[in-house]
Amino acid sequence: MKNEFSHSWSWSRIQIIGPDASDFAHRMFSRNIKSLSVGEARLSLFLSAEAQAQNFFWVAKRPDGLEIVLRQCDAESFRTNVEKFHFAEKFSVLPAEPIKGYWTPSPNSATSGEGNLLAQGLRGFWRNTLFEFEFSPPSKQGDETLWTQHRIQNLIPSAPEDFTDKTLIFDVGIEDLCDHNKGCYIGQEVVERLRTRAGHGPRKLVAMEWNGRANAGDQLLEQSTQEVVGVTTGTQFVFNSKVLSLAIVKHSLSASPDQKFCLKSNPQVAGQIYR
């Protein structure tokens, strides 16, 4: 079923027009922009030097530059980040325009983080979700709770609920949006160091089920050892008398019925990883 995005996930488009747009983006963004053909799109990141996500967006190649589709709340910071590194390159960053955005559950999608431009829009797949955008003003907004439930079940993090511009991308599992062997880009050194040394970061994003409310930032204890092993994020959803949430935990933890957790602030609230 096709759903409009909720208010917190309203979208905008930004066009970067000029002959140097693709070369600039290839050096800045986490995707291999040079390998894209006109009309191809990728879900991408603009990172800090420490591999922290500054912006999260779709980028597509146009004949005259690039099409960027991103959440409205990120539009101003994206423009600021681009202009911070924009010197003599020949391109212009046009003002952000609000657009319509839709999502549809799409289990077992053939591609992840890939898409294409349409005549007046963009579509792409990521994490069992079809993202569709129409380049026209939005008319209404969708159900926040339905989208939140879908995000938890498919490990789709959201800023600022689950991460900030100070969060390592491996902590929220979006390192798959960094292409291998594409050459230098901002944050590439940290990304490749972690991939080479361990294959992953020290922490990961998981979906959890609780018997009570967990506040954002609550520390998680492993019940058997009372060791602090993670922290809850701000994404939560009540479903069938259970509280579902996202959490950032030690990478070694897994979804096992034998592994139980509780909140340090309230040990009566118990839970387990289910994804």
Total of DSSP H or I helical runs spanning 4+ residues: 4
CATH topology of the largest domain: Gyrase A, domain 2
Distance between the termini: 23 Å
Helicity, as a percent range: 10-25%
> Could you tell me the radius of gyration in angstroms?
19 Å
State the strand order across the main sheet: 2-5-4-3-8-9-10-7
The unreliable regions are none
The CATH superfamily of the largest domain is Probable tRNA modification gtpase trme, domain 1
Number of domains: 2
- Range of strand content: 35-45%
Which CATH-level-2 architecture of the largest domain?
A: 2-Layer Sandwich
Provide the residue-averaged pLDDT.
Answer: 94
Largest sheet: 8 strands, antiparallel, barrel
Overall CATH class of the largest domain? Alpha Beta
Task: Characterize the overall form.
Answer: globular
DSSP summary, beta strand count: 16
Describe the structure.
With 275 residues, the protein is mostly beta strands. The model has no long low-confidence stretch (mean pLDDT 94). It contains four helices and 16 strands. The protein starts with a strand and ends with a strand. The strands form two sheets. An eight-stranded antiparallel barrel has the order 2-5-4-3-8-9-10-7. The chain has a six-stranded antiparallel barrel with strand order 11-14-13-12-15-16. 14% of the residues lie in helices and 37% in strands.
SSE topology:
Blueprint: E1 3-4, E2 11-17, H1 21-28, E3 40-47, E4 53-62, E5 65-71, H2 75-84, E6 92-93, E7 97-105, E8 114-118, E9 121-125, E10 129-134, H3 144-153, H4 188-197, E11 203-210, E12 219-222, E13 227-239, E14 242-250, E15 261-263, E16 270-273
Antiparallel strand pairs: 1-7, 2-5, 2-6, 2-7, 3-4, 3-8, 4-5, 7-10, 8-9, 9-10, 11-14, 11-16, 12-13, 12-15, 13-14, 15-16
